[in-house]
Amino acid sequence: MAEKPAGTPPVRVAIYGSCVARDAVDLAGGDALDVSVYVARQSLISAGHDASALFPEGARVESAFQRRMMESDFAGELSERLDSVVSTTDLLLWDLTDERHGVHVFADGTVVTRSIDVLGVPEVLEVVDGARHIPFGSDEHFDLWATRAEQFRDHLRGSGMFDRTIVLQIPWALVTSDGRGTPWSMGTRAIDANEAYRRYYDHLRDLGFTIFEMQPLGVLADPEHRWGLAPFHYTQDVYEEIVAQVLAAREDPVD
Hints:
By secondary structure, this protein is of the alpha/beta class.
């Protein structure tokens, strides 16, 4: 776990993504990293779409965090949340984990994410199931996402955050640390997910984003992970490497 030299303030990170970035900070960041904001379970495609009037008031949500993330997604407030911490953030960490379920488009054109939280709340799932589902990896999803990615880049440039953004291209693990194949996640194999994600990362690279990439054979899933076994729940060394790269980026920022 990373430790900062005595007298050195922690690196302040904003997280847009999910378990990859968040677990790296929690499990390997130690006192060297401090989270300024965490925006999770939200597709880039839903940003800027205000569907908050469609969120069911009586939804029984297991945790306050899950409710906040779903309500934030329905409100499409990604940019506003990141803008609110520009002056108190050193680096933005972005992972694409929560794109994996696609999005739903309502009749009025607003968009919400088909997140793992939505799937677990019947009242919310009923609402989104009445809208058109665009699966992750489809040409339509990629085209919508690619346009939003360019707009997001421009927004980050305008706010001064672009040169402080690191995209984490961490592939789904093909095998576990004890040599077994990783389980499918929501009907998707790791090898297929990695192939589907490829053009999304390639597009971000073309847009000029700074990307930290690990290779599929260089990551293992942890059967004892705190959130359970999944292709995107890694062994400790993966998180240690992510944090090392984050700290190195802070010491040698992009010009």
